[in-house]
Amino acid sequence: MKALVLERYAGAGGIEFADIAGPRIEPNEILVQVHAAGLNPIDYMIAKGDFKPIIKLGLPATLGSDLAGVVTSVGSAVTRFKVGDAVYASTFDLGFGALAEYVAVPEHAAALKPAKLDFVQAASIPMVGLTSWQALKERAQVKPGQKVFIPAGSGGIGTFAIQLAKHLGATVGTTTSTANLALVRSLGADEVVDYKSQAFEDVLSGYDVVLGTVKGDGLEKALRIVKAGSAVVSLIGPPTAAFARARGMNVVLRFVFGLLSRKIIGRARARDASYSFLFVRADGSQLAHIATLIEASHIRPVVDRVFPFAQAKEAIAYLEGGRAKGKVVVQMLAP
Length: 335
Ligand SMILES: NC(=O)c1ccc[n+]([C@@H]2O[C@H](COP(=O)([O-])OP(=O)(O)OC[C@H]3O[C@@H](n4cnc5c(N)ncnc54)[C@H](OP(=O)(O)O)[C@@H]3O)[C@@H](O)[C@H]2O)c1
What we know:
Mean pLDDT: 97
Number of helices: 11
Distance between the termini: 20 Å
Low-confidence stretches: none
Number of strands: 16
Number of domains: 2
CATH architecture of the largest domain: Alpha-Beta Complex
Bound molecules: NADP nicotinamide-adenine-dinucleotide phosphate
Structural class: alpha/beta
């Protein structure tokens, strides 16, 4: 079968289409014919080797992790899915790449596709949905009436997280460039800062939760807008010693991550805030919850561009440009 494969850690130069053997499933896995695969920044970061200390990949490895498709066979221990089911899943960090014609998906990582979404829309959801859920609901435990700051509101994470935070009853602040102001307002953002003309730390205040989504000095600046007792949950690092421990990493990496995060943890403490790094995990039961929110129209997908599978490399390059409005999706099978 055709797959987009990382052959060596060299960014775009290390990615090629390849004809590889189709996956064989284990008893607890389903085989999915992929109709569409959503892209995420981690796909090009992995290709560059940025995650080598954290994610152990045997190369060549199929890229991608978000997918929507149809079950074509089920392992003997599978109980929740049958052949013909339309499903969506994240295989992130599980060792199964989604940018392929077929993917073996562990049953625990999949959920039925929201019926109101087509395959492209459904494939846009898993990583941003799971990350937002795990950051806002599990980690920060956002409560009605709290103020949540979600910078980069027009990106893949932002477009989902704004809607989830609103659904949880929060007041949402965000940043975006002038062209995307209307988009983020349409998703429910209450306090919108055009970062091209204003510094958010000069206009926002009283936040209970901050999501770290933009590299640079944004996290430190965000500490100026938080209340005492607030939670800063970073998706972009620096990773912490606690994260390294939870992942079973060796003592050297624990030490290195401890050093890398020492400054931001100290600055957060000085503001009576907590700092933590979140690394998303695949979770089909959370995707099933997210599907109910989509079916009830609390959350809608925001898809910027769709590329045919043959142009998957161009799709990754477009995402890497950093200007996507919502999600970039690769389509394997036309509807
Ligand atoms: N730790 C984890 O488990 C995890 C999971 C998912 C994602 N992430 C990380 O989270 C980050 C965001 O992911 P994503 O999927 O949202 O990326 P993305 O879709 O590629 O983000 C693109 C968006 O970022 C906006 N943007 C760029 N610079 C900005 C700035 N200075 N201020 C405000 N907006 C800005 C752009 O809007 P404009 O064109 O208006 O500038 C664009 O809409 C990435 O670093 C990703 O790797 C981490």
